[in-house]
Amino acid sequence: MTGGWKLIVALAAVLGVGTCAALGFLAMALFVPQPGTLKVLDRAASERDVLAGDFGSMSSDMQMENARFLGMYENTKYFAAPSAYDEASFCLIAVAVMEDGGWEAACGELIDGRDVLTYVWDADGREAVLVPDQFDSGMLEAEGWVSVHQNLMVQVDPDAPREFSDERDDIEPYPLKA
Questions:
Q1: What pLDDT was estimated at residue 152?
Q2: Cα 70 from chain centroid (whole Å)
Q3: What ranges in the chain are assigned the alpha helix state H?
Q4: β-pairing, 68-73 with 89-96?
Q5: Backbone angles phi, psi at 126, to 5 degrees
Q6: Which of 11, 50, 72, 85 is the most exposed place for a label (fewest CB within 10 A)?
Q7: Neighbouring C-alpha atoms within 13 Å toward the C-beta of 14
Q8: What is the pLDDT of residue 170?
Q9: Which ranges of the chain have pLDDT less than 50?
């Protein structure tokens, strides 16, 4: 084998290994779940984190004492709480400030930091989603959603299409309703 052919074979080997490495990194970025966090639950509790009212059986489904206030949008207060069943599951609670003080709640498992954890509808028919700290809210904001907190987004127009909800067929939030 001449020197020219050796160079060609060496270049082909380097390019082949480089291509395999690049494809491997691409596959990791697209298909391997990225760790996610919900750091709001790590902060010390304050008075506004207390869920006031009768939540009945919900207290057995969630760690109510560890709930944290995320924010308020119009007449609904939103809270996040860890699930009582699984340390990787978290719950979103929507409490109506006016009317009868009703509430909605749902829990979901944190599998990937890029995905919505769970969602609920408030008393006015708006959808709200609980998202991990790593979630890229740009797509939802472009569709008219409002980022109330790093971990909470609310759909301003309840008649808008909900395209993101079908992205994760692997988990369906389990609703907990009063």
A1: 96
A2: 13
A3: 3-31, 58-61, 138-142
A4: unpaired
A5: -85, 140
A6: 11
A7: 6
A8: 44
A9: 20-24, 26-30, 162-178
Strands in 89-159 per DSSP E = 89-96, 103-109, 118-121, 127-130, 145-149, 152-155
Q: Which two tokens stand for residue 125?
A: 């028919």
Q: If we measure between CA atoms, which residue out of 47, 126, 117 comes closest to residue 82?
A: 117
Q: Which residues pair with 42 in a beta bridge?
A: none
Per the CB < 8 A criterion, the answer to whether 91 and 103 are in contact is: no
User: How far from 47 is each of 20, 28, 51, 67, CA to CA, in Å?
Assistant: 54, 42, 9, 11
pLDDT of residue 34: 73
The label of the residue with tokens 């790093």 reads 150
The whole-number pLDDT of residue 125 equals 87
Amino acid, single-letter form, for residue 120: V
Please state, in angstroms and as integers, the Cα–Cα distance from residue 71 to each residue in 92, 96, 128, following that order. 12, 12, 11
- Per the structure block, which two tokens stand in for 32? 């391997």
User: What is the model's pTM?
Assistant: 0.72
Radius of gyration of the chain from Cα atoms? 22
| Res 177: pLDDT | 43
Look at the alpha carbons of 105, 162, 72, 151 in this order and tell me if their dihedral is positive or negative. Answer: positive
The per-residue pLDDT for 78 is 95
Query: What residues form DSSP beta bridges with 82?
Result: 90
